[in-house]
Amino acid sequence: AARAAAELLPRLRGGSEAVRETLPVLAKAQDAADDLRAGMHVISGLFANLKGHEQDERFVAVIRSELVKHRGRLERLRKTGIGRLYPFEHATAGITIDRYILSAMPGADDVGELMGACEQALGNLYALHRKCLLALIAPQPV
Q1: Which long-range contacts (C-beta less than 8 Å, at least 24 apart) are formed by 62-69?
Q2: Is-contact 98 82, C-beta < 8 A?
Q3: DSSP strand E in 31-80: where?
Q4: Is-contact 108 114, C-beta < 8 A?
């Protein structure tokens, strides 16, 4: 949806300039979000099969490797918004989109923290996407 909205950008009249400028950022972020969601499924599958393999060093090494890769996916998603101001009012004045998506990067060693950060980042990204699209279609005051 973000890609479609970005393609319509030249024809849109609603929303602020900042909202319209955010659409290409959201389109770029969508690819990273898709990778992040796919990685979450991989990690969930690995942990679902961990029971009985806790002592298998190769299996545990695969999990650790995937966690490092997954943190990289999260970082890639967050970096799509670096330097771009959040286009709406926020309690933190001057907050950028990357900080809105995720305030701080977790380590790769804490699985719960990493997965929670992924959920938070995706939730915040989709909330921003929704707000931008609503701002574009909402009636503008004359």
Answers
A1: 64/108, 66/39, 66/42, 67/43, 67/108, 67/109, 67/111, 67/114, 68/108, 69/39
A2: yes
A3: none
A4: yes
Condensed to tens digits (0 to 9), the pLDDT of residues 45-84 reads 999 998 888 888 999 999 999 999 999 999 999 999 998 9
Give me 39's structure tokens. 């990685």
What pLDDT digit, counting tens, does each position of 31-55 carry?
999 999 999 999 999 999 988 888 8
Q: Round to whole Å and give the CA distance between 124 and 118.
A: 10
The pair phi, psi for residue 96, each rounded to 5°, is -95, 165
CA 41 to chain CA centroid, nearest Å: 15
Look at residues 102, 92, 93, 107 and name the one whose alpha carbon lies nearest to residue 128.
Answer: 102
Torsion angles phi and psi, residue 109, rounded to 5: -80, -25
* Angle ∠(126,79,119) on CA atoms, nearest 5: 40
pTM: 0.82
Q: Is 127 left (phi over 0), alpha (psi -120 to 50) or beta?
A: alpha
Q: How far apart are CA 130 and CA 142, in angstroms?
A: 23
